[in-house]
Amino acid sequence: KYFNLSKEYFLLGYPEIFLTQNTDKFYINNKKRILITLTDNMCFLYSRYPSMSLKINGNLCIPYLNNLINNKIFNDIKWIIRMHPISTPEDIRLIRKNINIIKNRNPKLDIVIDNQSSLMSLIRQSSLHISLNSSVAMKCSLLNKNSIMTCPVYNKSDYFEDLRSNKLCFILEENYTEENFTELVKNLITYN
Hints:
This protein is α/β, with parallel strands linked by helices.
């Protein structure tokens, strides 16, 4: 026998949740962490939105994210960028280049790309999750973590309606402002 399957127990959903460390909040080096998950094929999917282009120096596709990362009120945050597992080589190249540009502009900034750690571990260590439209928000909700979705394409769809209804997922409207975004992040980080 290669496998011994129990006749009494079945794990449904995301079994990796049960395989990672406990659910207590913890912060490494007393820093809160914000997990940013990036979508695959960003250059293609968001080509109709020039302001979201990865070809703009320092841009990570999420509107106002660069300004948010560099905002002095978030100096004590560790920013963790998680690329999509099937990101295109062009997206990966542009993301790495733009992270380096961001770091060069602000050398004190604590920002890393982490695709080696388990996603569930990164979620557990984070205070907040930000993305365009990532299904990671569903995993975050299982761990009672807030997510902010910024996608102008999916913001009116039912894709995240269940999460929106239980107040764990905040979906920004298509033309949200930098002030809306900053204030929401500040509130969620402060009270998390």
